[in-house]
Design a protein that fits this description.
Length: about 400
């Protein structure tokens, strides 16, 4: 098989590396930096397994910035470009996906296009009508940033939004390249596949919000939040996972996917979905008030990234805390090694960790690392289990 993967972020690169073990794969991205890194067998994103496989494994993989030449004679074209949520339209901005579909349809009309980007329910049916092609299929991904290739090697399930031979062939390609042998494959309708993605991420957001609200209750009532969570989680129906409190669910997927699902409910009665979306803001308001009550002059923000082992701080929850306390006139310092500028939203970026810790009256950390153990009395965090 010749497979082209368009968009080489976490999702695209993880799919490209997975499939390049047994297929000819061409990765396409507008970023020359990413393309050059992949061709030099270096990962442009932080992911241990991606770095290892690129450096050490035999892969039939190359990368290019030229989409037109890359898709020639392709069997499958995987689209994994970003679909950010547009607050004005209450909808995903799917323009990059639509552009790729149009270009592939024009240059390789026989290729089957597999959309991995997150999309609203009804998108596939709409683009099939718009571009007069039935060669577009949605296959949701369920990958964690920082562990994207691992999650592709050991997938929870493989879902393809079409009940057809070509859909089964694609699912089998993914399964054949995985290390986990007993992978469940589910072929569904296009709308059902789109809904599976949105409801899965919204359920995860709901679980995060639930344990965060439990933690807010315990904090307000001066109770031991960890003991309550441990007791609740010992119920096998609830389970001892995904229960570590935080400043709110963040990252690239959960905030936008919950909002998109809520928008898809525009004519359907609901209560829970809206509550999940609103819970995130309520949590940040509550924790910001807890910080403000301590009357610090200089607050240090330790890392902007969403979680440990990630280089992404898009929609990270700690930024919501930062904006709220700055609005109250508190001076904010930032320690984030991935930042190269001296300022971030008009706050000073401190490059030296020792200087950062010395200059901060209080340090806000969504997740605690060994760097902060020597000044633990200064640290404000809700990380109770030292895990993501």
């Amino acid at each position: 098989m010749k497979i082209v993967v368009v968009g080489l972020g976490y999702v695209g690169l993880a799919n490209a590396v997975l499939l390049a073990q047994h297929n000819k794969v061409v990765g396409v991205d507008i970023s020359k930096h990413k393309v050059d890194a992949i061709n030099a067998r270096r990962s442009p994103v932080i992911d241990a397994e991606l770095s290892e496989y690129l450096a050490k494994k035999k892969l039939d993989l190359c990368a290019s910035t030229n989409l037109q030449s890359s898709v020639a004679s392709a069997d499958y074209v995987i689209v994994s470009t970003p679909t950010n949520y547009d607050e004005k339209t209450n909808f995903f901005d799917t323009s990059t996906v639509e552009t790729i579909i149009a270009q592939v349809s024009g240059n390789a009309p026989e290729a089957c296009i597999i959309v991995k980007s997150t999309i609203p329910v009804g998108f596939i049916e709409a683009v099939r009508t718009r571009f007069k092609t039935d060669n577009v299929i949605f296959s949701p991904e369920f990958l964690r940033e920082g562990r994207a290739l691992y999650d592709n090697m050991y997938p929870s399930r493989i879902i393809v939004g079409e009940k057809s031979k070509r859909a089964k062939v694609f699912a089998d390609l993914m399964k054949h390249c995985a290390l986990k042998s007993d992978v469940e494959i589910l072929l569904t309708g296009p709308r059902e596949a789109e809904a599976i993605k949105l409801f899965s991420n919204t359920y995860l957001a709901m679980r995060v919000a639930f344990f965060n609200e439990l933690d807010s209750y315990a904090l307000a009532g001066e109770m031991n939040s960890r003991e309550i969570i441990e007791g609740v989680s010992l119920d096998a129906r609830i389970g001892n996972h995904y229960n570590n409190p935080s400043f709110g669910y963040g990252g690239y997927c959960l905030p936008k996917d919950t909002k998109q699902l809520l928008a898809n409910y525009d004519s359907v009665p609901q209560n829970i979905i809206r509550a999940i979306v609103e819970a995130n803001s309520t949590r940040k308001d509550f924790l910001s008030d807890q910080i403000i009550k301590r009357n610090p002059e200089n607050v240090g923000i330790y890392r902007l990234v969403m979680k440990k082992g990630s280089d992404n701080f898009r929609q990270s929850s700690i930024q919501g805390i930062m904006k709220r306390i700055k609005a109250k006139g508190i001076n904010v310092l930032i320690y984030e090694p991935s930042l190269t500028h001296e300022k971030f939203y008009n706050s000073t970026v401190v490059k030296d960790l020792f200087e950062f810790k010395s200059a901060s009256d209080l340090i806000v950390a969504n997740r605690v690392t060994e760097d902060l153990l020597d000044i633990s009395e200064k640290v404000f965090t809700r990380d109770l289990f030292n895990e993501n």
